[in-house]
Amino acid sequence: MNKAQRVKAVMERKEADFVPAGFWFHYKPDLTVEEMIEEHLKLYRETDMDVIKIMQDYAYPVTGEIHCAKDWYHIGIKGTDSREMEKMTAVIRGIRERAGEEVLIFQTMFGPFKAASTAFGDDVLMKYSKEAPEAVMAGIKNLADGLEAWAEAYLDAGADGIYYSAQFGEEGRFSKEEWEQLVRPFDLQILQVAEQRKDKYNILHICGEPEYAFKTHVDWFYDYPADLANWSVKDNGYSLEEGREHFSCAILGGLNNKGNILHGPKEEIRKEVQAVLESFGTEGIMIGADCTIQGEGIRLDYIREAVKAAHTYKKGEE
Known about the structure:
Elements: H1 3-11, H2 33-47, E1 51-54, E2 62-63, E3 76-77, H3 83-99, E4 104-110, H4 112-120, H5 122-131, H6 133-156, E5 161-166, H7 176-182, H8 184-195, E6 201-206, E7 228-231, H9 233-236, H10 240-246, E8 250-255, H11 260-263, H12 266-280, E9 285-289, H13 300-311
Parallel strand pairs: 1-4, 4-5, 5-6, 6-7, 7-8, 8-9
Antiparallel strand pairs: 2-3
């Protein structure tokens, strides 16, 4: 099996030749297209991981300003002919050309609520979400329409799928009724882009914000269209095994993104990977982390050790 075949087998909940793995971290937002390409390929090549996830490390080009509730009706996002989109599609094409067809490439996307939060501030977004939800919905729909077109452009440029960071389901932020009205429809609008296209895939990352202790209602996302689902086990106290019982897709994750994969030593990284696979098994899982690796001193040799531990795992062996 090549890397693409291996990950596809996992997404189909079939046994692969060995367990694949993938990890990622953020880059500086001012990197050039060539620098972005090289940084992603360096991570991929030096760690031997099985997938390439292209990071989204700049703010979406949201247009408009918010001074009153009516302003939400007039916000938007620049189109697929924008400089920002041209940069990202150039990164996708460059990585595809150099990495070849034997690995799946996923483009990271944040939802329209995150785009609005980044552009106008979370306090502003939450204030109007409570006080003027209809106006906020109109603005979020404008952003979702734009991001739907961005998702199409990413896939057209050569991405095999979307790595979608689904946020705003944290405990204490919205009631489920509010979330179902304000957030869910627009997440689904973007996720359906890859879902409806042949040989395209969604990785669903369920993410919480630090203001809410990263705790989120994982169960609210059970029926989101996804081929792999990922969430923070450590922050939610929600195991991979529990997720397997409720999600209709394969699972990505297992490692603490701020733990051994960041600090080492290598022996503990191997033990952590082995413990995950001893508990979960080897079918329908790709080893990864709770979220992006976060912290100072990220080491590619530590990531490579985790990938190697997944690739060489045999039940009952240490």
